[in-house]
Design goal:
Layout lengths: L1 E3 L8 E9 L3 H10 L6 E5 L7 H4 L56 H4 L3 H8 L8 H8 L11 E9 L5 H10 L4 E5 L2 E8 L4 E8 L5 E11 L5 H12 L19 E9 L9 E4 L2 E9 L1 H7 L4 E2 L3 E4 L5 H14 L7 H10 L1 H13 L10 E10 L8 E8 L5 E6 L4 H20 L4 E4 L4 H4 L5 E2 L30 E3 L14 H20 L4
Parallel strand pairs: 1-5, 2-3, 2-8, 3-5, 8-19
Antiparallel strand pairs: 4-11, 6-7, 7-8, 9-14, 9-17, 9-18, 10-11, 12-14, 13-14, 15-16
Helix pairs in contact: 1-6, 1-14, 4-14, 9-10
């Protein structure tokens, strides 16, 4: 049942077995999985079925970061959450992502890869990408792709799958919970407070505001927070102000280790090998994409991190080094400075002067002057990189407050030097393989670093790590069952619990971990512990 809480004229005191805070991907999956096991499940959703700008503005930070994007534009605050604008790109994490890697500080999950794998198939059903897995043995023949790196030292093929059109979780799965007698969704229900017993270590009650200045209470046996990677941290920090950091923040870990997947154009591939023409396939209502990545042995032997390396066909104009160098030279010389690698930029400019002229003509006169500008030249590599967990990358509370009196967030984030170093090291391994296999030439665009890591950097908008899973409260926020340290009945779902983020989009693993959490809660119910 879907209830508009803004229709309530008086305070409501709601009783539930399970209270799920947030109606995005994790919240919808959790309710659907638990609906046959618990007689009274409540979902509290700040938004409704449709986008509203005034509600979306509750995501606005206290101040903008500068490089890192404003989260108000990367998340959606209504039923279905960010699945309302995701591209549905899914791949599983790798075994090594769960392991402690001595060369990466703060790496290692408290659970093993094999504990998550059994849930990936059902996760793919929720994502509507099929139950046939991500094996290259299956997909390379369907792509008519003869693996160009089959006998290489460092490189292998990875597979991504997406539903067409992308799966909007509430639109696709909402009716299963809306029409179920055991589930009630309260829309326009903005969580503002919790009641925590320091004696029993239980969350006893949640308070929500229905945008009418009337507060309502939900009492439940179990509470699960599914607000997303940034809001999970923000709200837990908000709750901890009242309870002296006893809720998973005994060692100041809430909001820390914030990670995303930076997306960069740091290298180009120059090749005419026909293998690279068979990297994608539309099969019925799915899109299949082959990309390149490093083997786990290469990551271990060379102490580096992985990259997701898809290829985009590109023209002479798009791959022009001279255009990028022109912009860098112009910016620096206008400030009476010389850029790093000045000689390289000057060389790029003069050797590629025709494409620089083409760029000026297109921008200033909306004209094209060289037919060769559109000729095929090679491939851009719009890579996505693993960002490693650093304690000082974090979400924190600012001084400004939203309409409910909750402190707005501030983001402290940077791409650390060691991550940049590993990026180049990993690209060098890919470049070596490409050359040794006589597949072409990979050119690393190091001289473009000044723009690449500032105004040209992109992001997957995958907010991970802020309530990380760990073996102890000294190391994280939730335990291996995703239960908040210091509590008996308070859980967090979503990629905020990821200790590391890998190099692929997180949604498939978010769903897999949520299915694992649902199984845990069902087992507790069956054993009489709920």
């Amino acid at each position: 049942m879907l209830v508009d809480s803004s229709d309530f004229n008086t305070q409501q005191n709601i009783e539930a077995d399970i209270c799920i805070m947030g109606g995005g991907v994790a919240g919808i999956v959790l309710a659907n999985e638990l609906k046959e096991y618990f007689a009274n499940i409540v979902i509290l959703e700040s938004g409704s079925e449709e986008y509203r700008q005034d509600i979306q503005e509750l995501y606005a930070p206290a101040k903008e970061h500068g490089i890192y994007p404003n989260p108000m534009y990367s998340r959606l605050r209504y039923l279905g959450g960010a699945s309302n604008h995701w591209s549905n790109n899914t791949s599983p994490l790798a075994r090594i992502d769960f392991e402690k890697r001595d060369w990466i500080e703060n790496s290692g999950w408290p659970i093993k890869y094999d504990e998550v794998v059994p849930f990936y198939e059902q996760a793919a059903v929720y994502c509507q990408t099929g139950t046939d897995g991500y094996s290259t043995d299956l997909w390379l023949p369907k792509l008519a792709l003869k693996n160009p790196y089959k006998n290489s030292r460092f490189t292998e093929v990875g597979i991504a799958k997406a539903s067409l059109p992308p799966t909007r979780f509430y639109a696709i799965h909402g009716d299963k919970i809306n029409n179920h007698k055991n589930v009630t969704i309260y829309k326009h229900a903005n969580v503002t407070d919790i009641l925590y017993s320091q004696q029993t270590k239980n969350i006893e009650q949640v308070t929500f505001n229905s945008y009418t200045n009337i507060e309502h209470k939900v009492s439940a046996k179990q509470f699960i927070m599914c607000f997303g990677g940034i809001e999970n941290a923000r709200m837990l920090l908000h709750f901890n102000q009242k309870y002296e950091n006893k809720l998973g923040n005994q060692f100041d870990n809430v909001g820390r280790y914030f990670m995303d997947h930076p997306t960069l154009r740091a290298a180009n591939l120059y090749s005419k090998d026909e293998s690279f023409e068979h990297l994608s396939l539309q099969e019925k209502q799915r899109f299949i994409l082959a990309f390149f990545q490093l083997k786990e042995s290469a990551l271990t032997d060379h102490e580096t991190t992985n990259l997701r390396l898809p290829l985009d066909r590109a023209s002479e104009y798009v791959l022009s080094d001279g255009i990028s160098s022109f912009h860098i030279l112009k910016d620096k010389l206008s400030n009476f400075e010389l850029p790093d690698d000045f000689g390289k930029h000057a060389s790029n400019f003069f050797l590629d002067i025709d494409m620089v002229m083409e760029a000026v003509a297109r921008k200033s006169f909306d004209a094209k002057i060289f037919d060769s500008a559109n000729d095929f030249a090679g491939y851009q590599i719009p890579l996505m990189m693993e960002q490693t967990p650093h304690r000082n990358n974090r979400i924190k509370l600012g001084n400004a407050k939203d309409k409910f009196g909750i402190a707005k967030l501030e983001i402290e984030w940077e791409l650390k030097n060691e991550d940049r170093t590993r990026l180049w090291k990993s690209l060098e391994l890919f470049a070596k393989d490409t050359g040794m296999m006589s597949l072409g030439r990979v050119r690393l665009l190091r001289e473009q670093s000044s723009r690449m890591f500032s105004d040209q950097i992109g992001f997957g908008h995958h907010h991970m790590g802020t309530t990380r899973m760990a073996n102890s409260p000294e190391q994280g926020v939730v335990d291996s069952d995703q239960k908040v340290f210091g509590t008996n009945n308070f859980y967090i779902a979503g990629c905020s619990v990821f200790p590391t983020g890998g190099h692929v989009p997180p949604t498939l693993t978010i769903v897999a971990l949520t299915l694992r959490l649902a199984k845990k809660l069902k087992e507790e119910k069956q054993n009489g512990r709920v």
